[in-house]
Structure formats: C-alpha cells, structure tokens
Amino acid sequence: KMSCFWFCLPLHLLMVACLCHSIKAPTTSSQQSFKTDLFNFYHSLILADGKETTIHLLKDIPKRYYFVLEESRALAPFTVTVTPCDVPIEWSILMHKASASFLGKAARGDPGTQEVSTAQKAPTMVSTIFNYKGNSVETYMGMSSHSALYMLEFLSTERDTHITVYLTTDTTSGHLYPELPMDPRIDVIGIGHTTVTLTWKHSPSVLQHRENIQYCLLVNEKHNYKSLCAAETAIRSSGGKLPPTLALSLSPYLLEPQQVMILSNSELSIINKASNGEVRQTCVGTKNTYTVPSLSPSTQYYFDVFVVNLLTNASAAYTGTFARTLEEPEPKVTELKDGKVIQIVLDGKNQKFYSLQYQARHKKIQFTFQLCRGQVRVHITKNGKTVASENISGLRYFSLKGKLLDTYLVQLRSTEESNSSVKVQVSSHFHKPLFPLLPESLKIKSFSKLRTCNSVTIAWLGTQEESKYCVYKKRLKEDQVWVELQSADRCSGPESRHKSEKVLCKYFYDINLQRAVTTETIKGLDAGTLYLFDVYLFGPSGIPIRYHSKVVKTRKKC
C-alpha cells in the first residue's frame, strides 16, 4: 500500500511528500520555516502556469505559493512577474532541490524510503534565488529544474493590500504583458499655459499586433503610478471609482457618479473626481504623441503612459514623467470711460476672465450690465476688495458708494461653453439713465382662447414713464424654434430686423402700475403657422430693451 502511494503521486506532490517524510531535524531557522511550510503543503496554494493571479495580503502575515514545473520542461526558461497594487511589498523565490536518487527510490516504492532514522536525512538544499522589496513591477527570469520545488513568499509590512502574480513557462506563444521599448521614458516636447505635449517610443507589441494594443494616458496632480492597478487602488481609496482597466473603461455605461466623460476629437477621456483631486485617463489608440488639453496654468502634473493589451487587459507602464504648465499671463485690462457703453464677446471655450478698470471721479457710481447672449458671471472689486459677484440675466444695475479715485476692477466670463455677450456701462450721472425704466417683467403673454386661424392676441407690461413700444413678428418652421430662441441677441434693436417683420409701434404708460398693461391683436396671419413675436421698449436715450421672445401657433381650423 505504501509503495502504491508513492508511485501514484504526481511529481510535484511526490516531491513534497518525500521531503516532508524525510525531514527530522532542521539545521537552520530558515530550513525550519521552509520545512514547516512543506508539512502544510496540502493547505497551501499552487500557482497556476500561464495565468495572472490576484493575491490579497494581510499586514505582517506572509503568504506562500508553490509551483513545480513539469518533468518534460527540465532546464526550460520560466518567468515570474509580480505587480504591487498599492504599498511596497517584500517577495522572494525559494528553491528546494532534492537528490534525484532519493526521488527515484521513492517513485519505485523502495522500502528504504518508508522509514528513515533520525540520523538519516534525504540530501536536500534550500536556497533563496531571488528577493525584492519595493512597489515596482518586477520580473524574475530563470531556468527550471524538474527536481526542484519553488516557493514564492509575499509579505506586506505597511497595511493590507493586493498584488498580481504571473507565472509562465511558455516563451514561444507571445506575452501576456505588452512589451516596452528599450527606452521606456516619456518625453515632454511642449508646455503651454493649459497644455502639455508628450511623446514616447513605440512598444514592439504595437508594431506587431496593432489591432489589439493601444496606449492609455493617466494624468493627475499627486504623483506617478508604477502600474495600472496601483492607480486604480489609489483612486478607490481616495473616494473615486475606476473601472477594472483603462481598456474596458471606454464604455460610458461603466461610468460611476464620481466620473465625467469627455469626448473630444474622437478621443475619450474619463475624469475621476476623487476627494483629493482628479485623475484623468485618455486612451489614444496607437499614437505615440499626444497633447494633453484643458490643464490649469501654473500647475504641476504627473503623466503615466500604459500600453494595454485589449484581449487580456494586461498592461505595462512606461517610466512616468511630470511637467509644470506655464503661468497664465496677466489679463489685459480695458479702461472704462464714464457714460460710454461697450459690448464684449466672451469666449466660452477657454472660460477666461475679461477685465475692465474704472477710476471713480465721484463718490457714487453705477455699473449697468445688459446680457445680450448666453450666461455671464460678473465680479467687481473696489481697491482689491470684492463688492459684488453674481451671474447676471437681462438688465442688472450695481449702485456703489466710495471715495474719489477709488479703483474698480470688473471681471467678466462666460459660464457656458458657447460664447456669451454683454453690454457694460459705468456712470456717475444717475439723473441721466442710459436704459429706460423697466417693468416688473419682460415676458410677453399670449391668450390661447383669443387665437384664431389668422390672428393672435398678445400682452405685455409697461411702466409709469411714457415710452415707445414696437412689435415685430417672424414666421418660423418647427425645426427653427430652438435655434432662433437660443441664438437671439437680446441687445440688438429693430435695426437688425427686416422691414417686413415690423407690425406696429405705440406709446403708453400708466401711473398705476397695476393697470400698466397693454394688449395687441396681430391680424393677417396664416392658419396653423408658428410665429415669433418680439416687443422693443425705447427709453429717453433711444437704446432699446428687448422683451423675451414669444412663439405662438395660429389655429389650424376655425
């Protein structure tokens, strides 16, 4: 029975069983630990060949994996690649080699192997063939021996963590990990205020398997990452959420609430909003030069490039680099003149501030802003201290009190990605207002019950000041409504309208504001047709104020 037991064991179990049976009195502490591990072999883990294994480590508790290479693979090369995914770890490879004659006796069922005296020991040798401590991706390449048992020991002394381990003896059918070039550095070839241009040498894997390989870039303000799983771990621990790999994260359906996806120039970027900053990931296909856009001026960024195998999701990291964007130049400041109106177009794409400066010649002054298009943020300081800051809509007045020669700085920017436009005036002459007195609301109301096939009745509010009101109409198609309303310039007057669009002009006012309402029935319209109606209010200065446009459709049947 014992003879059959020895004969039937697979080679790697046979080795362990023989070694365990033969060990009686260890000579060194390291051999003692190793032999103890051998006795617990059946409760340990065997490392799979040709497969990436994820291993979780508890702080200060070593974890051991074993592997024995097939007998037919004697003296063949093998590699072990270990990727720390967080903190530095310690890991080593130990080889326990038994004599071939002892293994031969055990395999034949020699009774001499069943009982070994305390004085007898099987000729064995334990040696550490590799050890490493750190958080870099490290690969060991060696030659296998069919009479040796290998043990990998891993230890984390900082905190609980996880790693990935890849063992392979097949060096002929390609690599799980994409190859890096001889020079894996990332070069910075251009730096701007909001951009950094990078280049790197092509991976041999890209040149051989272009359709299955791509480059992915990671950008953050903290530090470089030595592996993709290290970056993923850092993002998760800081409150963000990253998909399993960059290669798979290209699907918008995998996005988490902390993520923002940006599609620009056919390249997909995903920004992970973490509590300590953001990590931006962009996959750029097989291009090896890329300009990173939308960075902040005067900020240091860290850049990592990973070459990713789309079939296996395995990746290899280039040597990361860093660069500091240039300082933003001082914005040009335009001097405001008392009483003069200027119109400013703000670039929504760059989100830059437009600066205006005014030196007071009176103690009381008034800033007037008329929003023409888009959305605008206004920030006003007096001698460096903020006195007003808000988003404006329609017409907005800021009446301020100070001292002679106080310096006011007005900063304007678009809060939309599209361009915005605004008119600005500063004046110390309160008794000569540039714009007319405004009603409580600039909305135009239409009466559904008074609609007919060829007429529409509208109403709007007036003021206590006699003013001129002009009504204009424009025929629209269904697909023109949204574009017409979004692109309307609320600062433009009737001079921008075609003469055929004018309906009428009238004067009215009422001391009692509750009765300062006027109505108008516009006739001669076509049945079942959309019309855009506008009302312009003219004040003493002649500068018009445009009410909010109203779209009404006449009845199709009457």
TrEMBL record:
Biological processes, Gene Ontology terms: nervous system development
InterPro entries in UniProt: FN3_dom, FN3_sf, Ig-like_fold, NDNF, NDNF_C, NDNF_Fn(III)_1, NDNF_N
Secretion signal, residue range per the UniProt entry: 1-22
Domain of life: Eukaryota
GO cellular component, one term: extracellular region
Compartment(s): Secreted
Record keyword Secreted present: yes
Domain Fibronectin type-III residues, every copy: 178-315, 436-544
SMART domains registered for this protein in UniProt: FN3 (SM00060)
Keyword annotations from UniProtKB, A to Z: Glycoprotein, Neurogenesis, Repeat, Secreted, Signal
Principal location: secreted
GO MF annotation terms: heparin binding
Keyword Repeat: yes
Function: Secretory protein that plays a role in various cellular processes. Acts as a chemorepellent acting on gonadotropin-releasing hormone (GnRH) expressing neurons regulating their migration to the hypothalamus. Also promotes neuron migration, growth and survival as well as neurite outgrowth and is involved in the development of the olfactory system. May also act through the regulation of growth factors activity and downstream signaling. Also regulates extracellular matrix assembly and cell adhesiveness.
Name of this protein: Protein NDNF
Organism this protein belongs to: Zapornia atra (Henderson crake)
Gene that produces this protein: Ndnf_0
